[in-house]
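Box 3.1. Reading complex inputs
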Amino acid sequence: MFSFILKGILRDRSRALFPIITVVAGVFAFVFYLGFMDGYVDSIIRQNARFSTGHLKIVTNAYAQEIDQKPYDLGFLEIRDELVLWRKDYPAFDWLARINFGALLDVPDSSGNTSGQGDALVFAIDLLAENKDLEYDAMNLKKALLKGSLPQTAGEILLSDLSFTKLGLELGQSASLISSTIDGAMAIRNYRICGTVVFNTEMLDRGGVIIDLADAQELLNMPDGASEIFGISRNGKYDKKLFRQVKADFNMRHGGNDEFDPVMLTIEDQYSLGTMLAFMDYMLWVMNFAFMFLLGIILWNAGLMNGIRRYGETGVRLAIGEEKRHLYLSQLYEAIMIGVLGSIIGALAGLGMNWIFNHFGMNMTSYNRSSSIMSENIIYTAIDLKSCLLGMIPGIFAPLIGSALAGLVIFKRQTSQLFKELET
Amino acid sequence: MRHLFCLLFAGAIMILGAQRPDPQQLLKEIDSNLTSNSAKSTTRMIINSRRSSRTLISVNYSLGKDKAFTEYTSPPREKGTKMLKLKDQLWIYEPASDRIIQISGNMLRQSVMGSDLSYEDFMEDTELAIAYTAIISGEIKHENRDCWILKLTARKKDTNYYTKTLYVDKERNVPLYEASYAKSGKLLKSMKLSDVRRIGSRWYPHKLQYKDELKDGKGTEFIFENISLDLNIPDHIFNRAVLRK
């Protein structure tokens, strides 16, 4: 019976084309939407983990209390030995010492007077130490480098390309960073601009400066210090359960009550990201459900329309002696086949579109300009089986339900009335 | 009988009033104690932050209200850092970078070398009698000294601290405590002045304890190791060229 129905669907285009197109369009839109949303949330997590929160982060108790202000004066000092220990205890993560601080980027003229000035968001990371490759990967530095080269010696910095252009600088030129030491005194040091970077993140590309950790420790008078120790999961995955376990273990073994004792935080504990991610997760489910519901109604309606459109055909089939039950079941099988066929084509088309945007990305720069959420300017859609399966659910079941309801009318039809109906 | 009572009452008020000095005159007396034509001093600044304590030693020169120069001589990290004030402009020289930066705008609100003093405080040069109107609101015993309580209100709205409360030593006309408030009434800074010594015809406090009430920490002590007033200071000290020397 399946091969008979399949032949009917393939040969009689006027009967199946519209329902299949409807299913294909609905499933395609749903799969693409899921891929985009998953890609967007992944981008938020990835970008925050890289630049702002890590998957895990170790800070002092005092720092944790005011973490939104990034008070590096409450960070760690002489942290080298502890860092070696933590790296040994938790090898599933790369542990990276960093200092983030605000500064003024001051460009001198030939006589040493200020010729240009701009706000700088400084990221101090290990650019020259043994583990520099970890930072290169975590910050995606090689990919972000637009002009010049990565720092090779102390005293070299990378500057956001936007600031570089705005201040009219040249590679190799000297600029001063003006900030405050950990004691609150003014700190000024000169650096050589060796390259420019573009991170495709609006907040960083506005005034980001990348400096070697040792240079920042000297500038801020923080010997062997770090304001934050980032823990980046080696497999790059956001594993909520694992992160919570590591956090609990660390805080039990190394935590304390002194204001400068270490405390571990997960990505969810910082900058209200936990609330935001939970809310986005919840909203994603609500939107998924709403989308699936709407798609279901459209496809159900298509199934109903199909049933009504073929009212005459069912009459003929009954008139020539086909059983009502057989006729009803054949319509259900047909609906399933239309649903499956349409869902497969729609899911493949959705996956294809997701692959294109996964490969080339979707430019969201203009949206991000007005957004306070840290995500990449180029969003790469996610490709996974989950979005395909979720998209196929309404694609298969909605036409089936539509046909099942529309087909009930078969059982109400009287054989004696059929010829009269056919005459009209 | 009723007239007699009124006369006695008015007399008592006059006597009490006569015991209190004119508050504006008192401000002038304070100014004449604390301000000089020129000064040279060596000071020790002990900054007690939340984490540690640091001691900075500096040599300071001032000429009138408009010119001031400070050079830090210790500790090694700060050695050679210089600050020059000329009228309403302030420059800082940082030897490690060999840069001279003009401090202006929001930077003026930042702390001087991590202390409880801001650059704005450093720049404050107007005499109290000119910047504020005063009333005497009472008396208090402070650090075993009889003091007047002076309430000051700024004559100009853009003054750094709109109101101040001073405990002024009755005998020596030197404030021993100063609280500075924002226009909203919020306490911003407090200062205890002690170790008052005689220098010529003036009384001069040799130890000041500043506290930025908006900051954590235990405040900043400012101790005059030595001070000479009204002396000749060569002009080149207050020249921008001296910053890089």
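In summary: Chain A has a mean pLDDT of 85.
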